[in-house]
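ok here's Stage 0 sporulation protein A homolog:
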Amino acid sequence: MKVLIIDDEKLLVKGLKKSLEQEGFQVSAAYDGEEGLKIFETNGFDLVILDLMLPKIDGISVCRRIRQMGDTPVIMLTAKDSDVDKILGLELGADDYMTKPFNTRELIARMRAILRRVEKQENKEKETVYTSGDLEVNPNYRVVKKTDREVELTPKEFDILELLIRNKGRVFSREEIFTLVWQEPCLDTRTIDVHIKNLREKLRDHGKESPMIQTKWGVGYYFRRD
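and the structure:
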């Protein structure tokens, strides 16, 4: 497991780095927020230990930036011991919070607990297969099967189908589908209509009394609840 420590207290970092390496972790260190973000952005890490008070870029801003880039677990460190700081840290997306001085063994125990939880969640997500009747949608492998035969979809067709089947019964407007799938403002809602038409044909879901992908007239589309 690769860990990044971002803290300007060099003696603390030196001691913590040694302890973590003895536990089998690969450890990188940065001593200000700017350096920490550069190292984080150019390397993959399993967990970040982040001080709240940092030179150049403070820990709050660093945590926000890490959250924008993904779900890497963050444990925040601070010299302040107050509920306000704790709530602030957790609301920013930190997974845990420790006040200095802290017990290294406790920190390691919390790290392992977070990493176990993340691994469990990742395994659960990998195992998720969405089904409806004889239709199977596997997001991890991006495979769609109908009556045990693979259905060839374009990347965008798959993304639309996954969005709808993952949220069965929820109606999405054409604008919402476009924004969520294309990750940009909707310029032409007719694009969604064409993709839905193609999906229905490929899934042999066209013209049935109760198709899997249903239309909410004047609103948008949704995947039928089983």
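+1. The chain is about 45% helix and 20% strand.
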